[in-house]
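go over both lines:
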Amino acid sequence: MELLSKIDLQRTPRHVAIIMDGNGRWAQKQGHMRLYGHNFGVESVRETLKAAKELKIDFLTLYAFSTENWNRPKEEVDGLMDLLVRSISGEIEELMSSNVRLMSIGNIEGLPQSCIDELHDAIDRTKDNTGIHLVLALNYSARWEITNAVQQIAQKVKDQSINPEEITDDLIGHYLTTSEIPDPELLIRTSGEHRVSNFLLWQIAYTEFHFTEVLWPDFKREDLFKAVLDYQSRERRFGMVSEQLT
C-alpha cells in the first residue's frame, strides 16, 4: 500500500520546514566536488514540493543558505549563488503553472545583486498565486532575525511609539521575517544530523522534529510521506496533559 493512502489528509501539518542537509557528503560519495550534490539537490526540491501539494500543505520552508554558509570555500559559495540564480529563473514558469507562491525570509539584501533581482522578480510574478507557499530561507540566521526584531522594537520604544509593557509574543512575531507565515508544525532535517543549526529558533517552540539519515539529494516523495506519518503518530499537547485534549 502506498504511504500516501495511510496519511490522514485532514491532519497534515499546515507548515513544514526542512533543513536540506547532506548535499556535499552525497557528492563526495559519488566521487565529485560538493557542488555536484547541490545541483542534484534541486531535483529533490521539485519532488518535495510536488509531494507537499499532494499532502495539501500550505507552507513549505526550505533552509537554502544560512549566514554561516558564507564561511564555506569561495568556489562553493560562488557556485551556490550561481545555482540559486539559475534555479529561480528556470523554475518561474513551473511555479506559475503549478499556482505556487514564492516567498523568502532572511537578510536578502546581503545576497549578490543578481540573486536579489531574480528573487524579487519571481516573488513579484507569483504573488497572486493561491496554491502552496514555497518559502526560501536565504542568508538566514535565527539569531540575526531575532536581533533585528529587538532592534526595531527598541527603536519604537525609544521613539515612544511602543510602551515596554506592550511587548508581547505577538508583537515580537510581527517584527520577524516570518510575520506572514504560521509557525511550522513539523521540522525535518536530512543526513542524520540532530541539530537545528540556527533555523527558526523562535518559531519552532512547539514544532515536532523528524530526523532522517537520508542525504538531501536522495530525499524523495516517499520520504516526506514518512515524515508526515511520523508526525501524525504523535500527540501534540502544547504544555497540557493528554486528558485535556479529549
User: Anything to note?
Assistant: The chain is about 45% helix and 15% strand. The chain has a mean pLDDT of 93.
